[in-house]
């Protein structure tokens, strides 16, 4: 089959597998490679050493997977239509805000399985071919590839934006050795809008298209392994896993589509849970309730660290202070330090211990 004849079929099969869109990108990302190097040299990756570990390979698909000639990029929407209003949760300091993408089951396996099925459909049509599927599982500049595949443009908040779907979606890539005709990149439609830059609670944007991860709440609550800088804790509010503020204010997200995937709907009431209730989870409960969830990856210690910060920002009530007091003797020095900070915010801190 001629590659140009295959592309329409790939799009059809992708749609049948539940993907919201599908495009084809080339393997050349010179401008994005230069941007990545500048970002790394500025230290904006923080403790994410893996961002620089593979060097320039992240921007060179042919080095990552030798023989790659084109990349099939897919989009899958994740906005849960059964979740509580995120703005209402953010406005209630006693409740926990969790980024919308992680309320349901972990997307990595689901999207990867669908990509594998897409590859099998292609193989059934043309015979064996070389491919590898990626969903946040390798050093891939997925937003740059998605842009070049015509799925959207990279906004000032560094997210991929789509005129008809906003930014609430996952991406996946199928690196192939097929010479597929590539799509046309989408031009930017942000104009003079800077709402996302101004909305960041911790001022993590050092400029348009420039995110200093060391100040980003998503980084601090998920990727950062140690103590959260005290200067940033008050601005974190009740955000305990990720942050959606720059997406919530984006005008294009008025067009975001509710997901058709049942697995992306909220589980265990995590879309509108009380901070005190979550802080009371022991490790066994945490592991049980986050099974199959992206939240599981931070572990119980960071979970309690993040919740302690949020409780420090909550209204001073007997319930909040009592919950924090229950964790003063926690085995983790990291947890104890954040609990003491939170209690001090409520004027109830004990004398500092030796740790």
From TrEMBL:
Enzyme active site: 136
Ranges for domain 4Fe-4S ferredoxin-type: 181-210
Gene3D superfamilies: 3.30.70.20
Pfam families (alphabetical): Fer4_16, QueG_DUF1730
GO-annotated molecular function: 4 iron, 4 sulfur cluster binding; cobalamin binding; epoxyqueuosine reductase activity; metal ion binding
Associated pathway: tRNA modification; tRNA-queuosine biosynthesis
Catalytic activity, EC: 1.17.99.6
Cofactors that this protein relies on: [4Fe-4S] cluster; cob(II)alamin
Keywords recorded for this protein, A-Z: 4Fe-4S, Cobalamin, Cobalt, Cytoplasm, Iron, Iron-sulfur, Metal-binding, Oxidoreductase, Queuosine biosynthesis, tRNA processing
Keyword Cytoplasm: yes
Entry binding sites for [4Fe-4S] cluster 2: 200, 216, 243, 246
Catalytic activity: epoxyqueuosine(34) in tRNA + AH2 = queuosine(34) in tRNA + A + H2O
Classification via SUPFAM superfamilies: 4Fe-4S ferredoxins
Cleavable signal peptide: none
Cofactor note: Binds 2 [4Fe-4S] clusters per monomer.
Assigned protein family: Belongs to the QueG family.
Subunit architecture: Monomer.
Protein name per UniProt: Epoxyqueuosine reductase
High-level lineage: Bacteria, Pseudomonadati, Pseudomonadota, Gammaproteobacteria, Chromatiales
Gene label: queG
């Amino acid at each position: 089959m001629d590659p140009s004849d295959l592309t329409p079929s790939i799009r059809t099969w992708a749609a049948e597998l539940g993907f919201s869109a599908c495009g084809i990108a080339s393997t050349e990302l010179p401008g994005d490679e230069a941007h990545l190097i500048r970002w790394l040299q500025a230290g904006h990756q923080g403790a994410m050493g893996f961002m620089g570990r593979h060097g320039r390979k992240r921007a060179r698909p042919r080095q990552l997977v030798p023989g790659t000639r084109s990349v099939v990029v897919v989009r899958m929407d994740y906005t849960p239509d059964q979740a509580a209003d995120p703005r209402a949760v953010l406005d209630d300091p006693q409740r926990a805000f969790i980024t919308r993408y992680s309320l349901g089951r972990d997307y990595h396996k689901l999207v990867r399985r669908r990509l594998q099925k897409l590859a099998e459909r292609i193989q059934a049509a043309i015979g064996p071919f070389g491919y590898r599927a990626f969903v946040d599982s390798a050093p891939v500049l997925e937003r740059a590839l998605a842009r070049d595949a015509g799925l959207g443009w990279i906004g000032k908040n560094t997210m991929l934006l789509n005129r008809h779907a906003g930014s609430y979606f996952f991406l996946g890539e199928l690196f192939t050795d097929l010479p597929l005709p590539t799509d046309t990149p989408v031009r930017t439609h942000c104009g003079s809008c800077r709402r996302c830059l101004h909305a960041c609670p911790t001022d993590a944007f050092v400029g348009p298209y420039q995110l200093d991860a060391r100040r980003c709440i998503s980084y601090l609550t998920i990727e950062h392994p140690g103590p959260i800088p005290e200067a940033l804790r008050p601005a974190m509010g009740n955000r305990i896993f990720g942050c959606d503020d720059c997406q919530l204010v984006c005008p294009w997200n008025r067009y975001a589509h509710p997901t058709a995937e049942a697995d992306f709907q909220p589980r265990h009431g995590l879309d509108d849970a009380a901070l005190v209730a979550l802080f009371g989870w022991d490790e066994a409960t945490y592991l049980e309730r986050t099974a199959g969830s992206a939240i599981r990856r931070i572990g119980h210690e960071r979970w309690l660290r993040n919740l302690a910060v949020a409780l420090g920002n909550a209204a001073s009530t007997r319930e909040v202070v009592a919950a924090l007091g229950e964790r003063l003797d926690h085995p983790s020095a990291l947890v104890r330090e954040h609990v003491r900070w939170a209690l001090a915010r409520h004027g109830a801190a004990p004398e500092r211990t030796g740790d």
